[in-house]
Amino acid sequence: MGKVAFVFPGQGAQFVGMGKDFYDNFSVSREVFEAANESLGTDIKSICFEGTEEELVKTENTQPAILTTSVAILKALEERGINCDYTAGLSLGEYTALVEANALDFNETVNLVKNRGKYMQEAVPEGKGGMAAILGLERSKILEAIKEARNYGVVDIANYNSPEQIVISGEVTPLKVAVSQSKELGAKKAVHLPVSAPFHSSLLEPAGEKLKKDLENVKVNDLEKIVITNVDAKPLRDKEEVKSSLVRQVSNSVLWCDSIIYMLDNGVDTFVEIGPGKSLKGFIKRIAKPLNKEVNVFSVSNLSGFEKVCDFFGKEV
């Protein structure tokens, strides 16, 4: 077996009930939820387990909820002796990767991402911006579509998720123009996403500035794992790069496809997606296939996924 990477999901992966099976079955997972409740001063556990969909999708709840669930599942895996060489996370998931690498303290980070969610939501009034997924159109043609749409306002590439899926983000009118242009240029599908803000666009630079002030009071430790960042698709060289990378991430493209390719090229052949949902598993398979890379990809969002990973690594459940 080659190297192992732990990868963590971002906003959009959440669902009501996430993490409850781990809370009920593992004391280490229970401790994570209790610590989050104490740090936040709110019952994030109840929002995750039995809250309403409306409450969970509020950005300032979603971000700490996903982080907490992902770390709770991670701790259960680590307790079984399952570990990684590389780690990365999609957008918000990068904070979980930094906690996994012991660069950031979980109790501090859960508050940081709550504020991050609030700042991102406040940066653009609701209804003024949005996001859309473009399927089946190469990068150069999407850039062409965006160039035309920028005559009407701000629109940027938010996520390079896989060879077949690129997400764009921006103001409502130019976003619609870019979607229309993408279809004309041959996109198989273009879908407007149910999000409350134009994440990872230049419109969110004010949110990055607010986050920068919060990060000034956060302690960053030496990294114990190789963390691949969203903004550069390369490893963080030392702890001094962490804060600036997180500030840039708010309003820059998430280079997820490039990040996975970097890990594949450096000997990773086993990926474990840890947290709610399983979108990253699909992205990784679609990234590896045209490169003719044989990969093992697991998704651990429930006990069934946990058991499969334990079995693969030869660990008792």
Reading the helices and strands in chain order gives EHHHHHEHHEHEEHEHEHHEHEH
Spatial separation of the terminal alpha carbons: 21 Å
Number of strands: 9
What structural category do the secondary elements indicate?
alpha/beta
Biggest pleated sheet: 5 strands, parallel
Mean pLDDT: 96
| Strand percentage | 15-25%
Tally of separate helices: 14
Radius of gyration equals: 19 Å
Number of domains: 2
Q: Give the CATH topology of the largest domain.
A: Malonyl-Coenzyme A Acyl Carrier Protein, domain 2
Strand order of the largest sheet: 7-2-1-8-9
The geometry reads as globular
Determine the fraction of residues in helical runs and give it as a percent range.
Answer: 40-55%
Q: Spell out the CATH superfamily of the largest domain.
A: Malonyl-Coenzyme A Acyl Carrier Protein, domain 2
Catalytic activity: holo-[ACP] + malonyl-CoA = malonyl-[ACP] + CoA
Keywords: Acyltransferase, Transferase
GO biological process, one term: fatty acid biosynthetic process
Domain Malonyl-CoA:ACP transacylase (MAT): 7-303
Explain this structure.
One of its GO terms (molecular function) is [acyl-carrier-protein] S-malonyltransferase activity. Residues 7-303 form the Malonyl-CoA:ACP transacylase (MAT) domain. InterPro entries: Acyl_transferase_dom, Mal-CoA-ACP_Trans/PKS_FabD, Malonyl_CoA-ACP_transAc, Malonyl_CoA-ACP_transAc_FabD. There is one protein chain. The protein has 317 residues and is α/β, with parallel strands linked by helices. It has 2 domains: 3-123 and 203-312, Malonyl-Coenzyme A Acyl Carrier Protein, domain 2, CATH 3.40.366; 129-195, Malonyl-CoA ACP transacylase, ACP-binding (Alpha-Beta Plaits), CATH 3.30.70.250. It has helices spanning 20-25, 27-40, 44-50, 53-56, 59-79, 93-100, 106-123, 139-149, 172-184, 205-215, 242-251, 256-265, 279-288, 303-312; strands at residues 3-8, 86-89, 129-135, 155-162, 165-171, 189-192, 226-227, 268-274, 296-300. It has a 5-stranded parallel sheet with strand order 7-2-1-8-9, with helices on both faces. A 4-stranded antiparallel sheet has the order 4-5-3-6. A hairpin with a 2-residue loop joins strand 4 and strand 5. The chain is globular.
